[in-house]
Amino acid sequence: MKSVIISIIMFLFLILIHEFGHFIIAKKSGIRVNEFAIGMGPKIFSKQKGETLYSVNLFPIGGYCAMEGEDSESDDERSFDKAPAYKRFFTILAGPLTNLIFAGLIFAFVSFNTGTASTSIGNFTKNSPIEAQGFKVDDEIVEIDGNKINNFNDISKNLENYYQKHGKNDKISLKVKRDNKYIEKNVKVKFENKRPLLGFIPKNKDVGFFESIKIGFKEVGSMIVLMINVLKSLFTGKLGFSALSGPVGVVKEMGRQANLGIMNLLFFLGYISVNLGFFNLLPIPALDGSKIFTSLFEMITKKTVNKKIEEKFTIGGFVLLLGLILLVTIKDLISLF
């Protein structure tokens, strides 16, 4: 129960920093913010400070930064729709961008404290194919299929590229460095969930402060690429509805990661933050990406998007998203029992 409460608080914190990104840039841009809220539904706490109402709502499944004239017409000179297009663009972009920056800093913190995976073998997994073929702990993997290995991620990338073109029974060339000597063998890998694996756990290497920052933001980039590939798989049917998860599933997984240790939980928190940032950048009505797109359109063309048409698309998108969240939440609840 304790881990679930911690997970809900951390999930709400991600929503908080997302909405705070919108909030702070809106304030700096002179846009009126009517309400800044965490959670959805009935209010359990609220306080008016200046022009803005600060609220905490009952259901911990979201939040919002309600700007004057954002989703409806307003005569207020400080309304969102009367602000210059570039101010609207940066105000909306600030939300997902804050999530991505936060994720990069979280990954940097984790790598600085735990180190990062090297290309050297630290241990072998159960029934490791390369252990059975004579490889040893401390062997440093330098080439796969003739391609130079610069970091740990290069290993899985080269394995997947090779086996997309070859059969599962094919052997792949693996070159390692051992005691200043090079050993090269054609090895057979094993497959788990269609993924080719060598069957080893990498050694961790310590990283400095600046290197950890670089690793952290590189991890954000790698996750964005992964999410693009997941979207492609969903649209092409390679991944089904069961692969999606909603707030209940996220909180459940956060609870599991919390039991595995603080660094595991923080890494997963960073992963969810990347998800929030990335999906809010998609140009889908009711998501930030839709307003980013229309603001960018106005900046380039100097033409104003019809507000009434935009409102209808936003309402339609919101209903569809709400329906999807409801279906995914039902799926997640069923999986709990």
UniProtKB/TrEMBL annotation:
Q: Which SUPFAM superfamilies match?
A: PDZ domain-like (SSF50156)
Instruction: Please name the top-level EC class of this enzyme.
Output: hydrolase
Q: Name one GO molecular function term.
A: metalloendopeptidase activity
Q: Which cofactor does it need?
A: Zn(2+)
Stored InterPro entries: PDZ (IPR001478), PDZ_sf (IPR036034), Pept_M50_Zn (IPR004387), Peptidase_M50 (IPR008915)
Q: How does it sit in the membrane?
A: Multi-pass membrane protein
Its EC number(s): 3.4.24.-
List, alphabetically, the CDD domains matched.
Answer: S2P-M50_PDZ_RseP-like
Annotated transmembrane regions: 6-25, 89-110, 220-241, 262-282, 313-334
Give the family this protein belongs to, as stated in its UniProt record: Belongs to the peptidase M50B family.
Q: What is this protein called?
A: RIP metalloprotease RseP
Q: Which organism is it from?
A: Anaerococcus vaginalis ATCC 51170
